[in-house]
User: Fold this.
Amino acid sequence: MRRFIRRNAAGYFFLSPWLLGFGLLALGPILASLYLSFTRYDMVSAPVWDGLGNYHYMLEYDRRFWKALEVTFTFVALSVPLRLAMALGVAMLLDKGLRTIGLYRAIFYLPSLLGASIAIALLWREMFGIDGVVNQVLAVFGIEGKGWITDPDTSLYTIVVLAMWQFGSPMLIFLAGLRGIPRDLYEAAEIDGTSKWRQFWRITLPMLAPVVFFNLVLQTIEAFKTFTSAFIISNGTGAPADSLLFYTVYLFNEAFKFFRMGYASALAWVLLIIIAAFTALAFATSKYWVHYENERD
Amino acid sequence: MRITRRHLLASIGGASALAALPGLPAFAQERTIRHFWWGNPTRDKNTFAVIDLFQKAHPDIKVSGETIGWGDYWTKMATQTAGGNMADVIQMAHTFIHEYVGRGAIKPLDEYVGNGISLDHYDDGANEVGTIDGQLYGINIGSTTQAIPYNIKAFEDAGVTADLLGWTTEDFADACAKITEASGGAMRGSEDLSLYIENLEVWVRSTGRDLYAPDGGLEMTEEDVRSYWEFWGGLRDDGIVEGKDATVILDKGMAELGITRGTTAMTFRYANQVGAVQSLMTDPVGAAMVPQRPGTSNGHYVLPSMFLCLTRDAKDIDAAAAYIDYWISNPDALKALGIDRGIPPSQLGRDAIAPTLSEVDQNVVAFFGGIQDKVGPVPNATPKGAGEVRDAFMRTGTEVVLGNMPADEAAGRFIQDAEAILIRANR
Assistant:
């Protein structure tokens, strides 16, 4: 043991800033929130132990918890496939080897950088408002618009569109993946007279499967955590009629608006479990559809 | 000038660069207090002006001002409270003071009154609402009341002649119809106010009841809410208030209001905010009473809109007390503050601001004076959970505005939700 320490001391010394940071800024709060999730805690007076009270209330009585889950699952189910399709499509266009590809990459990546910002969410609210740009464009074609954001039937879709538009980071990863597919496979297919469409399904997609898998897992986690756009567009309330009550917005309000940090911690742990379950599901099914090149030998 | 230990240490501290270094508290004798308030651009400018004045008068005390909008204010306040680093002096609202006092985050001020803080010039009863369980926790820094800011020009163009200090809901509906007609539908009479629980409050109070009972339960009834939503539904059906798309945006900023956008002639605000409405539009703005149901009265009340409070985390209490006293007793400070936070609840304050009032402020002061004999008693204290009830009201009301639920069903749902919320918040 002593020899182990002596041999590795330098390593741990250089690691120590990260270890300290992780311990104090990540692990500590994580454990604290686990503890708080079993308490009633209003952020001012000391937490009061409540056992499983928070979880019981959540599952048994809290109508808005279920509403928040419904909104969030709908969003994830719609936005993740659409965003990945968009990212893959654009990546394939850019993969043609344009000379100005660097510029295009930057341009297409830009929305992702801006995406989480408050400015874009505000812009979105203006665009889809009753006298916003979207309705003005529709008016040109003689279509009468509506308050896209103020109608609970459509408000969620405006955020799905926003999420689609922020395809930059999966796009870059797809691009790298496409570059890694050996060209000779396509050449062989060309000689056999295989159509482009067939090439996509039989070569591109299978070869890209590990990258698709990676993007799917990451983007699903991202989508579950969506907060800023919904918060800003609904003025922090989840309005209209709770149609934008994303799980994180609900959690935030419980914690900081209604002083229920204990309950919010419980909500956060449930979200963690949900995300973990989805990730585990993705990994469990991956062996049926994800194949790695080195598995061939 | 008498040289005290503080002055001496402050000048030593100022001369020594060491004092500026963190981690050397023994040397950091420069006295600092933090003041945190929710604001708007006008209010922030006025407040920083007062901070400058105070620092000139007390060169040994440094005040750092922190400001943010209403919505984020309470988030930041809750976080600071949990973290044990609340500002020394904070601005407090009547909707939250019980929450914070109940949790021990605010210090009582009684021992400093007459001993650093002078309240001699205050109106009788002005600090009643800030007094909880016999102790003074919040000093009233402005009185206000519910109001309907209205576009004076639009009223004249449409020939509305109702008595705006005592009109009924029927007069109001009539005015909305006239304005909508006179503008050819380009300007509706009013915003749809059916989601403002503060406006419902006047409706409920005109029957002699409050939103909340003294024991922290509900006093408003399903019938109150139903009739209120049906009244607004009628105006919506007639097309004389703004449509649903503008209505279901909750907690709108000043620039999103119908009146500032020019799409309506009226909205709901508190009287002290009328000046801020005016600053965003060119037509002159006046203040009208919230219309009351025919045959009833006294729905309005005079509300201390904001309090100054000393927090649990305040360290240099003498400095904080000196600052608070300067705020409420120094004529220059009062003049710089104007009426953005409300009408000063002291003759000293009203005299100080009188010569500097703009036209819109004069309108507001006249309105405030004109309703004094028409206001009811101060309502029962707002219980814990009232903020959540407000959200539930807007949420359920939205379903009515969107036509998803009839008013009677929604009213029943809201009352049920509100009762559950209050029980949970107060267990």
Remarks:
- The two ends of chain B are 56 Å apart (CA to CA).
- Chain B touches chain A at residues 71, 74-75, 78-79, 81-82, 99-100, 103-105, 244-246, 248-252, 385, 387-388, 391, 394-395, 398-399, 402, 404, 425 (CB under 8 Å).
